[in-house]
Every structure is written in C-alpha cells, then in structure tokens.
Amino acid sequence: MAVTSGREAVDLLDKDAANCDIVLMDVEMPEMDGFQATAIIREKEKVSGKHIPIIAMTAYSMKGDRERCLAAGMDGYVPKPIRYQELIETIQRLVLDAPDIPTHSPPEEPSMGGSE
C-alpha cells in the first residue's frame, strides 16, 4: 500500500496495521513529515505493545542523517537514490530481527507417491 503523506501513513496503520509488515517512510512528505509520523506511530505502539519496522528513505545523506533517523525511532535507513541491494539487505535484517513479523512457511509440496 502506498500513501502520499505522513498523515496518511499514520491513518493507514491505524486502520490496517495487521496487513503491514514493514513501513518504507519517506522523510520529506507533505502535511506531516516522516519524523512526525514515526513519532506518532511509536507512541501508539507503547499502548498496543506491537512494533512495526520503519525504514527511512531519504535524499538526506549528510553525515549524521542516519543517526538522526534512528534516533527518531526508525529502524533502518536507506539513502536515495535507492540501491536495490541495500534496500533488500535492510529489509531482510529488520524482518529477521523483528519478533512481531510473522514468518510464513513455504507451501508443502504435494506427495508424489500414490496409494495402491
């Protein structure tokens, strides 16, 4: 699911958090930026007891920007332009480390043996 503002991200998670495994949060968004949206999401998690991984996606790539995003409650940081491999590695690291994200077993293969 995609949204265009921080407010929409917060609203979406309020309505449908169960269907969201991870949030790719743009830091620069209209109405409410990624820092404000993350702060609200983290406050709500204090009540719910759940945690959704949030990855900052930003053109900010100055020294200290990663630390600023992590200090704001984001779990990962991927600078723009997005490098596919870096994004995938960040997602994998967060998903494997996040206990609240369900892991899905691969479907069982049908048995090839027949009953005779």
Describe the structure.
The protein has 116 residues and is of the alpha/beta class. It is built from 4 helices and 3 strands. It has helices at residues 6-16, 34-48, 65-71, 84-97, and strands at residues 23-26, 54-58, 76-79. Strands 1-2-3 form a 3-stranded parallel β-sheet, with helices on both faces. It is globular. The relative contact order is 0.15.
C-alpha Rg, in Å?
A: 17 Å
CATH homologous superfamily label:
Response regulator
Named CATH topology: Rossmann fold
Question: Tell me, what's the shape?
Answer: globular
Mean pLDDT: 83
- Biggest sheet strand order reads 1-2-3
Order of helices and strands: HEHEHEH
CATH architecture: 3-Layer(aba) Sandwich
Number of helices: 4
- Helicity level, as a percent range? 40-55%
Number of strands: 3
Task: Sum up the structure in keywords.
three-stranded parallel beta sheet, 41% helix, Rossmann fold, alpha/beta
Per-chain topology:
Blueprint: H1 6-16, E1 23-26, H2 34-48, E2 54-58, H3 65-71, E3 76-79, H4 84-97
Parallel strand pairs: 1-2, 2-3
